[in-house]
Amino acid sequence: MEQDVDKVLIAEEVIQRRLDAMALDIRQDFPGEVIVVIVLLKGAFVFAADLLRRLPRMLEIECLNVASYHGGMESSGQVDFLDRRLPDVKGRKVLVLDDILDTGRTLRAVADRLTAEGATEVKTGVLLAKDKKRAAEVQADYVGFDIGDEFVIGYGLDYQGRYRNLPYVGTLSPDAQ
Ligand code: 5GP
Ligand code: MG
Ligand code: MG
């Protein structure tokens, strides 16, 4: 275990097994359709890479850079779209993937934006959902794991840009730098 990790919350094998089941659910909901998957960067890149390789090949994959935490441990309350252009989703069915559902503002803002751009259906999937009252009304269609309201790192999630490459999800040690 890394020295800055307090405890492993979800082990690597447990995540991988759960992704098998999530991929099955998604396949059943979009049988034989070419959907546009929008991966929210940076946090969702590990989750998306593992999940999407379990889905049929007919996918269009786009990325969207959004930020709300700015490296720290608290949501800033504001969702920034960092790209100059959005993927073209007019008339398309879209699946948005994010690492974690916290206040809900990110998924809410992205889903609203894609709907405004003409997407015919927007579904959302997250690896983790925190058990708390959300600031924005939103629910993810696919959730890997429900977790408590604590700050987590690993498997894409960072603390000050680090720990994204841990293969498991853990909590940060209180005396991590
Ligand atoms: P929301 O908009 O739902 O409040 O926040 C979603 C975003 O905040 C996530 O995509 C993620 O980037 C960041 N975030 C929320 N909770 C955590 C957490 O426990 N750890 C880390 N590293 N990022 C988090
Ligand atoms: Mg994020
Ligand atoms: Mg972050």
UniProtKB/TrEMBL annotation:
Its EC number is 2.4.2.8. Belongs to the purine/pyrimidine phosphoribosyltransferase family. Keywords: Cytoplasm, Glycosyltransferase, Magnesium, Membrane, Metal-binding, Nucleotide-binding, Purine salvage, Transferase, Transmembrane, Transmembrane helix. InterPro entries: HGPRT, Hxn_phspho_trans, PRTase-like, PRTase_dom. Residues 17-160 form the Phosphoribosyltransferase domain. Its cofactor is Mg(2+). GO terms for molecular function: hypoxanthine phosphoribosyltransferase activity; magnesium ion binding; nucleotide binding. It is found in: Cytoplasm. The gene is hpt. Gene3D superfamilies: 3.40.50.2020. It comes from Haloferula rosea. The chain crosses the membrane at residues 34-52. It catalyses: GMP + diphosphate = guanine + 5-phospho-alpha-D-ribose 1-diphosphate; IMP + diphosphate = hypoxanthine + 5-phospho-alpha-D-ribose 1-diphosphate. The keyword Magnesium applies. Pathway: Purine metabolism; IMP biosynthesis via salvage pathway; IMP from hypoxanthine: step 1/1. It holds the Pfam family Pribosyltran. Its main location: cytoplasm. GO terms for cellular component: cytosol. GO terms for biological process: GMP salvage; guanine salvage; hypoxanthine metabolic process; IMP salvage; purine ribonucleoside salvage. This is Hypoxanthine phosphoribosyltransferase.
